[in-house]
Design brief:
By secondary structure, the chain is an alpha/beta fold. The chain contains eleven helices and ten strands. It is 43% helix and 19% strand. Strands 1, 2, 3, 4, 5, 6, 7, 8, 9 and 10 form a ten-stranded mixed β-sheet that branches.
Length: 329
């Protein structure tokens, strides 16, 4: 019987050996991971909600991993600078990104984004979800979402809402409100939550859809009045507040979120180890206390869940961005 023999090229064996060596090296690296400090890049300035979440996460993951985990703040260009730094870093699991709402909307806002939010990143874990508060000046006549809608319809194009930048959660939450409530609040951009809230308290703007971290203490002290939460369900942190949807804007839901990403190509074993560590971190007492202060719902879901979540967020906000004609110049 004739048996055909495949001809072996001069390059086949060296190539196979090279592939085997690379695989063995990758497995060995994963087996000893981590053996040096891990960096979590936060694409915002220090002091904000994302920074706070990343620092507690780093602190607790360091205990679990037995290695140093530190936060590096790389703000600028609507999170693009810090995100790009991670995209081009070595895919070895030692440089990670704390991604947020902007990770899902920047591709729609920016025609020339220098990275692909899917192809250039590997999902590690969806850490937590949050929501915004709809707040007004306590001296305002606005005491409910119904009041806000009525006032906006009575004075179309005259009422304003403050944001802390184009395309931020505070901005798009307001634009979604415009879309679903059939009103026209005018967005007023600021360089951060603090100056926007200052103008809200002085009566320069009418309303904000701002983060829990930026407004909770002011609501508690009576310097702001909260009239609703932007989440799909009521929050245990503010049980007395209705959601925007149940207050009359059917289908409304706007969340903030925090997800951990590695550069594309990071070893699967390393991703799995990081996911396991993140899941342990969010169960800690330190993270529980942070969650109360920041209005977080901790989840620590697996990589596939983070991928699906980001894709759903992209699709949902793409329509809002395009219909509102929002662009980053």
């Amino acid at each position: 019987m004739f048996v055909a023999r495949r001809k072996t090229t001069p390059f086949a064996l060296p190539l196979a050996a090279l592939c085997f060596t690379a695989l063995a090296t990758g497995l060995a690296a994963a087996a000893t991971y981590p053996d040096k400090p891990i960096r979590i890049v936060v694409p915002f300035a220090p002091g904000g909600g994302t920074d706070a979440v990343a620092r507690i996460l780093a602190q607790e993951m360091a205990k679990d991993l037995g290695a140093s985990v530190f936060v590096e703040n790389r703000p600028g260009a609507g999170t693009i600078i810090g995100t790009q730094a991670v995209a081009v870093s070595q895919p070895d699991g030692y440089t990670l990104l704390m991604g947020t709402f902007s990770h899902a909307v920047n591709a729609t806002l920016n025609a020339k984004l220098p990275y692909d939010p899917h192809k250039d990143f590997a999902a590690v874990a969806l850490i937590a979800r949050s929501f915004n508060l709809v707040v007004v000046n306590p001296k305002s006549s606005l005491r409910s979402v119904a009041d806000l809608i009525a006032a906006a319809k009575a004075s179309p194009g005259k009422m304003t809402f403050g944001t802390y930048g184009v395309g931020t959660s505070a901005h798009l939450a307001g634009e979604l409100f415009n879309d679903l409530a059939k009103v026209k609040l005018i967005a007023v951009p600021y360089k951060g939550a603090a100056p926007a809230i200052t103008d809200l308290m002085s009566g320069q703007i009418d309303v904000m859809f701002t983060t829990v971290a930026s407004a909770a203490s002011l609501v508690e002290s009576g310097q702001l009045r909260a009239i609703a939460v932007t989440s799909a369900e009521r929050s245990p942190a503010f049980p007395q507040l209705p959601t925007v949807a149940e207050a009359g804007v059917t289908g409304y839901a706007a969340e903030s979120w925090y997800g951990l990403f590695a550069p594309a190509g990071a070893p699967d074993e390393v991703i799995a180890r990081l996911n396991k560590s993140a899941a342990a971190a969010v169960q800690s007492e330190a993270f529980r206390k942070l969650g109360i202060n920041e209005g977080l719902v901790t989840v620590a879901l697996p990589p596939q869940a983070l991928d699906r979540y980001v894709q759903a967020e992209e699709e949902r906000w793409r329509r809002v961005i395009r219909e509102a004609g929002i662009k980053v110049e």
